[in-house]
Amino acid sequence: MKSKKIALVVDNPYRDLPGLILTAMQLCQSGHTCYLVPLNLRDWEVWSLAPDFVLLNYLKKNNQEFARCAMEAGIRVGILDTEGGIFTSLDAYGVEIAPDDAVRRGIDCFCSWGPKLANYIVDHGWFTDKQISVTGCPRLDFYAAPWRDASLKASSYADAYGRPQVLISGVFTLANPAFEDPAEEARGVAAFLGLPEEQVLEWQRIEHAGMLELVDLSNQLAARFPKAAFIYRPHPFEKLSTYDNLFTKRDNLHVVKKGTVDGWMLRASALIQRGCSTATEASMIGVPALSPKWIPCRGFMEAPESVSIQCESAGELGDRLEEILAGDLNVPQFIQDNIRQITAEWFLSIDGDAHQRVARAIGDTLTGGSDVSLKYCARAIDGVTYREAPLSRRLRSSVRRGLGRSVHWSFSRFQNVFHDGWEQSDKHFNLADVRSVAESIQPLARNRSGGAWSNVGIHRAADVAEYRFGYLQGRAVAVTPN
After folding, report:
1. Is 14 or 139 the better-scoring residue by pLDDT?
2. What is the mean pLDDT of residues 279-294?
3. Looking at residue 385, what is its pLDDT?
4. Strands, E, within 308-445: which ranges?
5. Is the pLDDT of residue 72 over 70?
6. Is the CB of residue 25 less than 8 Å from the CB of residue 74?
7. In 337-428, which ranges are E strands?
8. How far apart, in whole angstroms, are the C-alpha atoms of residue 76 and residue 365?
C-alpha cells in the first residue's frame, strides 16, 4: 500500500496523547506518516498539512462543519471518541451527536470502544455496520502487558510521592472549568445541549458542593493515614489553580495535574471517586474503588458506581481504606461480576491491542490514490468554506491572498500573528513529550513482535512536512517510518 499522511487530533494530552502515539507508531509499521495535531490548532494544522485521513476526537455538533469540509476536500474522516467508554446514559450520547445525516454517512470509520455503544448507534441509524469497528480504546492499552511497563517508565515522576498511594479523582468540569469562567461555561453548555440555563446552573451548584465535600474528605483521610500519600488528581478539563487554597497543608496530600491517569492508577492502592469513569479503569486492573455516597453528584453514573464499594460516611470510607492498606479487604463477588460485564460491554477487552485494531480500521479505508484538493484546503484554512462564514471574512481572505500575504497576516495590526498563548495552554504538548513516550514503547514493541517491529522517527512536523499556504508555525509532531 502506498504511504499516506494521517492526522490524529489530540484533544487533551493530559489524557489522550500516549494512546495516540501508540496508534501512530503502529500505523508507521504499514509505512504511513502520522501527525499528532493539537485540537485547538486543528483548523490551521489539518488544512495546511492536507492529509489523506484525519482521525477526529468525536463527531458532535461543534465539529460537524469541520468534518463536512474535510470530506468535501477529499480528506477521509474517522472517529475515535476520547470519552467513548461510559456515559450517564446512552440517550445523552444522542443529544450531542452531529445531527447532519449526510456528515455521519460520510464518516469512513467509527472506532467504538465497545459493542454496547456500537450496537446503540447502529440501532438508532446514526451509523451503519460497515462504518463501525469495535476496537477498544488505545489509551487503555497501557493497563496491559507489555505497555504498562512503558506507562510506569514514562510516569516515573509519580514515584517521588512514595507508597502506598491513594488516588482521588475530581470530575468537576462544569463548576471548575479549565478554559472558561464558570458563568460562560454554563451558558455554553446550556446552548450546546438546548437546555434552560437555570438547569445547567443548578448542575453547576451541585458540582461545586461536591467538589468542596471531596476536598474535605481528602483532608480528613490525609490526617487519619499520615503514612499514605494522597494524590488528588483534577479532571483534565478542570482548572488547577482553584484548588490552591482549599487543601490543608500536609506532607502526604498533593494536588497533581500531570501525566495520564494510567501511570498513577498503576501505582495506586485504592481509588476514591464520585461519579467518575476512572472507577471502571481502576476495577479492571484490580485497584479497589471507593465511592463516598453522601457527596452530591449531578448525574448518576451507573457503571462506575456499580464497580465501586459504596460508603455512607467518611468514617466508613476510612475503615474500608484501612482494610485495603492492610491487605484485608475482600471485594464482593457482585462487584467482580459487574467488572467483567462492564469491561466486555463498554471496553471490549483490556488486552493491549486496541491501538492495533484502530490502526487496522484506519488502514482499511486508505485504498487508492490521494484525491485531496489543495485548492479547497487553501480556502478552508481561511474559514471561507464553512457555511456560516461571514461575508466580511471571505472578503478579507480574498484581499489577503491577492496581496500575497501569509495566513498569519492581521489587517488590524499589519503584521504576522499567531497563537501567542499556545505554549501556556493546558492542551500544549511538544516534541520532547512525544519522544519520551515513544522511547518507552520502542523496546517493548520490538520484543512483543519478535523483532518484526521497525523503529519510528519523532520530529517536529515543520521539519519533515511541507506546510502549505504560508503556514509557517506548525506545532504538530510527526511520527514517521524510519
Report:
1. 139
2. 94
3. 73
4. 309-311, 409-410, 415-416
5. yes
6. no
7. 409-410, 415-416
8. 8
